[in-house]
Design a protein that fits this description.
Blueprint (H helix, E strand, L loop, with lengths): L8 E8 L6 H4 L9 H7 L8 H4 L5 E3 L12 H8 L4 E4 L4 H9 L4 E3 L11 E5 L7 E4 L4 E3 L5 H9 L2 H10 L4
Parallel strand pairs: 1-2, 2-3, 3-4
Antiparallel strand pairs: 1-5, 5-6, 6-7
Helix pairs in contact: 2-4, 6-7
Length: about 170
């Protein structure tokens, strides 16, 4: 079984995308009247028609700056969780997308050197240390990413904000 984003190190394939991938490309408007399963079949169909049918659990999107621009639709992040993406690696993200992604349990790594990663390249995502997350290439090269606040990494490990709250309220008071 391939590890998920909640694992300290996740291995998968890179799916290279350009800059400014908007939420309508991730969760197309015509699919929004359906459930997440249908939205997932149309994810990135305009940019990467091979994506929805070819992505595997543990794979990683590697994008240019401005990932997640556009509307605030939560499904644009939820669909990537549904498809089993371990993470998105990009130099920058739209603010609303950034918050939505962590709230649904999707790991976003801010990596200034994301452009160095090639489409199809095998990658590992190392989140052992929230203060020094990294993308690992097959040759062992580490691409450092911006530190993550520990609470956001905890949220990803819990599977999103709702799961985090369920776990918190299921524990007896201290």
């Amino acid at each position: 079984m391939t590890p998920t984003a909640a694992s300290p190190t996740t291995t998968g394939r890179a799916w290279r995308l350009p800059a400014d991938v908007d939420t309508d490309q991730l969760a197309p408007g015509q699919a929004m009247k359906h459930g997440i399963e249908v939205v997932a079949r149309h994810c990135l169909q305009g940019l990467r028609p091979d994506f929805a049918g070819g992505v595997r659990r543990g794979d990683v999107i590697v994008a240019g700056p401005g990932f997640g621009i556009g509307s605030s639709r939560e499904q644009a992040a939820s669909v990537l969780v549904h498809l089993g993406l371990a993470a998105v690696v990009a130099p920058s993200y739209a603010g609303l997308y950034f918050r939505n992604a962590f709230n649904v349990g999707l790991l976003l790594l801010t990596c200034p050197d994301a452009a160095a990663l090639a489409d199809g390249e095998p990658l590992a995502v190392d989140i052992h240390d929230a203060s020094a997350p990294a993308v690992l290439r097959a040759d062992g090269t580490r691409l450092p990413c911006a530190p993550l606040p520990p609470f956001l990494l905890d949220r990803v490990r819990a599977g999103g904000l709702l799961n985090e709250l369920k776990q918190r309220f299921a524990r007896p008071p201290a």
